[in-house]
């Protein structure tokens, strides 16, 4: 059951390319505020910044620095041209391009990660709907008992070889 829950968690994580096909640029004055508002970000999601690293980079900044386009004290910097950033916390994640003038031209994005309690898209797991017997039988009802039998025969074999070892030592 734990494995099922983990798989569900992984499958719910999404990857978003910032600006979609436009990428991270000032060409055409993309509206990253509009782009961000069209998504619903959750903890564990990844945003990918794709850009020409000769002309752009990605800085994670504070809210104040985001507002002021202040690139002088970033909390983190990416500059490979293809940077994946995992959104590990709820709340706002502020990014801007550190190249002169680019932020002022709109190359900045405020990505708000919803708190889990405000995430209606998270479907309840079967476990959370109450106890009781599983709704459906396991597709392999005999697998567990077969494994158990196999484990016992291995244990028996080990015990037998230990006994013969002991017998050999004592002889
Ligand atoms: Cu730039």
Automatic annotation (TrEMBL):
Q: Determine if Translocase is one of this entry's keywords.
A: no
The record's annotation in InterPro entries points to: Cupredoxin, Phytocyanin-like, Phytocyanin_dom
Q: Where, if anywhere, are coiled coils annotated?
A: none
What segment(s) does the record annotate as region Disordered? 116-144
Q: Gene3D superfamilies from the xrefs?
A: Cupredoxins - blue copper proteins
Ranges annotated as biased composition (Low complexity): 116-128
Q: Which SUPFAM superfamilies match?
A: Cupredoxins
Q: Which PROSITE patterns does the record cross-reference, listed alphabetically?
A: PHYTOCYANIN
**Glycoprotein: is it a keyword of this entry?**
yes
Q: Which UniProt keywords apply?
A: Glycoprotein, Metal-binding
* Residue spans crossing the bilayer: none
Recorded protein name is Phytocyanin domain-containing protein
Q: Which organism is it from?
A: Digitaria exilis
